[in-house]
Amino acid sequence: MSQRYPAEPWRIKMVEPITIPTREEREHAIRNAGYNTCLLRSEDVYIDLYTDSGINAMSDRQWAAMMTADEAYAGSSSFYRLEAAVQEYYGYPHVVPVHQGRGAENILSRSLIRPGSHIPGNMYFTTTRIHQELNGGTFHDVIISEAHDPFSDHPFKGNVDIDALENLIQEVGADAIPYVSVAATVNLAGGQPISLANLAEVRELTNRYGISIILDAARAVENAWFIKQREPGWSGHSVAQILKEMCALTDGAAMSAKKDSYANVGGWLAMRDPELAEKARNLVVVYEGLHTYGGMAGRDLAAVAQGIVDSVQEDNIRARVEQVAYLAGCLQDAGVPVVQPVGGHAVFLDATAVLPEIPRAEFPAQTLAAVLYLDSGIRSIERGAVSAGRDPATGENRYPKLELVRLTIPRRVYTQSHMDIVADSVIRVAKQGKAITNGLRFVHEPEALRFFQGRFEPVAQWQHGVPAPRPGASDLILQELS
């Protein structure tokens, strides 16, 4: 009997038809996309688990708010509604809207980072680090060592290594560190949360050295849920209360409202320092739009404001996290290696364990994502060496300890039946993983964020659209994946 999780706390009002492309169509599509799932057309995808950013199902209240939004160029009432929601639920007094999270990263980096700056953080994220580097900064990973072990069961693998952080401060000097970048949750560690106790330790240390803390708040509501479930002393608090406690320990936040706030587009940068807020407003006029719309239409401002209210409702966040846990449980029961503990927004497959015969230089995670699409039309995303890019000093590929494929679950979009189909496909591919020995290589490699537009080709010819088995291996893989 399969696992069960509580019924979703909503009714379906509108549906969008989806169809599965044929095997021949999938082979044609992945070749045309250069074996990069990012370059697949949406119409060629059956179940889209590429991201949970901007593709969530909005609530009736969000749609209603959009219909009554104020589209004024300056001083829109929809902006003031968003500002009030951020102030109430996140606690920051100054709010600058942006078109999405990387807009906030750009404004923040231009405001605070100078050539020679050092930015410590609890594991890199792709767009965050590239903005830091483009402005002359160097990122330093100060996450605890357990975060790099996919099978460690540490409940807060997003925690900062306090000793590593202090050692870095003493090595480069506090004046060279404009802020500590704290993600909640940590995406590339598998959606892992940071504990309130650890965040308080980071606050105490940075206070001693006069260093700010900036929160990546895209999935902070999910982080608050994990604190409620896992951290002693917080089970009796609401998610909304915990979220505000987290933010109270920081000096500002960059937010992609396309995640926790369910919106299709939008974000914000929030701060406590009025001087930094003024600098951010000046820059947002240059790069985003007027400081009261920041690249968003009034209807988008309204959708984000209502989405903030929706996001902290206990039933919503419970259903969201438990759907992710259900998929992970199905895979773990079948022996598929997934990152543990399971995060709040995605299930992460350990590609080096699923495809142990493919060397890191042939990108096992990129290969696995392509094979999963070929098998069932499911789109996932690589989160390993391709995403990590090249070292700007040496030009060599970075090989992070984690080589993962992310199955990202959009909020309120797919049903349990869809999760069962995904599980069946992953299990089918994983059973034949040792027979897959040929990976991929670049034929087009962009300079920055290469995972978005890079193109690949098989290192050796793939048979029937999948990597050929090693000599002498059973051809069962070709039968099962064809």
UniProtKB/TrEMBL annotation:
NCBIfam families in alphabetical order: PRK13238.1 (NF009709)
Keyword line: Lyase, Pyridoxal phosphate
Cofactors that this protein relies on: pyridoxal 5'-phosphate
Entry GO MF terms: carbon-carbon lyase activity
Any GO BP annotation: aromatic amino acid metabolic process
Sequence ranges assigned to domain Aromatic amino acid beta-eliminating lyase/threonine aldolase in this UniProt record: 48-424
Protein's name in the database: Tyrosine phenol-lyase
Family (UniProt): Belongs to the beta-eliminating lyase family.
Residues with N6-(pyridoxal phosphate)lysine modification: 259
Pfam families: Beta_elim_lyase (PF01212)
InterPro entries for the chain: ArAA_b-elim_lyase/Thr_aldolase, Beta-eliminating_lyase, PyrdxlP-dep_Trfase, PyrdxlP-dep_Trfase_major, PyrdxlP-dep_Trfase_small
